[in-house]
């Protein structure tokens, strides 16, 4: 039986709190320190359909993603989590699309008819869609750990073993200059009755996705590498709505409910490792790009194992 440890998790987004949840479940005494409350993190902006967007390496991403898919399948049985399985299409604009991610999906079928202009084929599958407002509230409550709102500037400031899961802020804490913000803008509109999601990653006019939830539809998006602004651009919003309307004409004229921008923490590969610094364990878990939700439970399981 492992010894119970005092563990400080730095970061209050979906990765930080999923790690905290699993560490507490393993019997450790856990404190989360977050510079922003969960509802103001990048995680809160996510459209959050399970999809390993902009994350590497592929073998680890598939393993983490498959474990998270199983976890979300169980969570979908509880309506309070905000997780629901929904069918949808990943659109392909080339004759030989890269379907590496389907290795983690239990069932996926090819669709060749009734597709938008310029789309050669599509992959239909049923995946979890996560309403992040409800899910983050559930996750924080379910973790049952102590939370401190504040910014950590030096790991020496915090006690016990440390899990660094602070997204873009992680690099400064562990001396990693390989992180890059990738700006993502979304606009949420009232749901006119859509049930199926659409992902059009290779749209020549820009990354496009349409993700229906119970009361709204998340329309995106952008992938602006190196951009730091979190102010929504009206021009970008108009372009997103135009692209979304091309894919799902029912959305044209739907009233805007809210808008947001998040900065994805991109890295050449996800960093998930363990080092001993000044006599204590430091586990890094960051750099998930646009796949934080998708990889969260699998990565959290590895964090527990490393401690």
From TrEMBL:
Organism: Saccharothrix xinjiangensis
Co-factor(s): FAD
GO molecular function, one term: oxidoreductase activity
Keywords: FAD, Flavoprotein, Oxidoreductase
Protein name in the entry: D-amino-acid oxidase
EC number(s) reported in the record: 1.4.3.3
Domain of life: Bacteria
Domain FAD dependent oxidoreductase: 7-304
Transmembrane segments: none
InterPro entries recorded: DAO (IPR023209), FAD-dep_OxRdtase (IPR006076)
Broadest EC class assigned to this enzyme: oxidoreductase
């Amino acid at each position: 039986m492992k010894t119970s440890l005092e563990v400080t998790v730095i970061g209050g987004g979906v990765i930080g709190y999923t790690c905290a949840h699993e560490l507490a479940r393993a019997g450790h005494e856990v404190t989360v320190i977050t510079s922003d409350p969960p509802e103001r993190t990048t995680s809160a902006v996510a459209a959050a359909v399970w999809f390993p967007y902009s994350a590497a390496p592929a073998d680890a991403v598939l393993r983490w993603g498959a474990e998270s898919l199983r976890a979300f399948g169980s969570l979908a049985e509880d309506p309070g989590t905000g997780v629901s399985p929904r069918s949808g299409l990943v659109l392909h604009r080339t004759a030989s699309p890269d379907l590496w991610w389907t290795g983690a999906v239990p069932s996926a079928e090819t669709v060749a008819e009734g597709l938008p202009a310029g789309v050669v084929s599509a992959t239909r599958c049923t995946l979890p869609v996560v309403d992040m407002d409800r899910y983050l509230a559930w996750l924080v409550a379910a973790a049952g750990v102590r939370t401190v709102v504040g910014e950590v500037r030096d790991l020496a400031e915090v006690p016990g073993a440390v899990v660094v899961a602070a997204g873009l802020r992680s690099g400064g804490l562990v001396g990693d200059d390989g992180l890059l913000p990738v700006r993502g803008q979304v606009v949420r509109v009232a749901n006119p009755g859509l049930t199926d999601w659409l992902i059009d990653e290779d749209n020549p006019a820009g990354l496009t996705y349409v993700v229906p939830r119970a009361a709204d539809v998340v329309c995106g998006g952008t992938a602006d590498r190196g951009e730091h602004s979190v102010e929504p651009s009206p021009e970008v919003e108009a372009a997103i709505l135009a692209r979304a309307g091309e894919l799902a004409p029912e959305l044209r004229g739907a009233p805007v409910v809210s808008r947001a921008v998040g900065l994805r923490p991109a890295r050449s590969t996800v960093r998930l490792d363990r080092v001993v610094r000044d006599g204590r364990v430091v586990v890094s878990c960051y750099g998930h790009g646009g796949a934080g939700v998708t990889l969260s439970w699998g990565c959290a399981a590895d964090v527990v194992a490393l401690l």
